[in-house]
Amino acid sequence: MIVQNFVVIITMWLCVCIFNSCQKKFENTNHTSQDSPAEFKAKINGVQFVAVLYGAAIREDSVISIAAESGDRQMIVFAVKDSGVHNYTLAMNSVFNFGGYTDATSIAFASNEGISPGDSGGELTIVSIDKIKRLLSGNFYFKAFHQDNRTQRIITDGEFKNISF
Length: 165
Prior knowledge:
Elements: H1 2-22, E1 24-25, E2 39-44, E3 47-59, E4 63-70, E5 75-81, E6 86-90, E7 98-102, E8 108-110, E9 121-130, E10 135-146, E11 151-164
Antiparallel strand pairs: 1-3, 2-3, 2-11, 3-4, 4-5, 5-7, 6-9, 7-8, 9-10, 10-11
């Protein structure tokens, strides 16, 4: 359990570092370019989450990291072993593929935490990677679990479009 908590902390730290180095203000939906504007949104326990800051990175060491923050400081982060355009399973106890959610009070929930099956898990699907324009798009859903207080957050209808990396 200590090793698993260490992996979660290191992964979240990595995502936050990438997020801070790749953050971008949310673009206006009246964007006049031929490309659609960047966006990142989801529902957390049924309540809409819309990111105002977001970023992504594809590292040469085969990791895709994505992070987004709402105006009230909630965060959604991902770190997955890079397989390109792919359907990534966010399984409980996974070391390689991870989704995380931090609420506005800084309580962290993870897709790879839990006590019993059904506590956590989900999917992240990368639907496009444009290496020329350096844009990433996809969708996701997952259950995230907080080990200490044994609570869960359900993230649904997740979608990100044209996130720069």
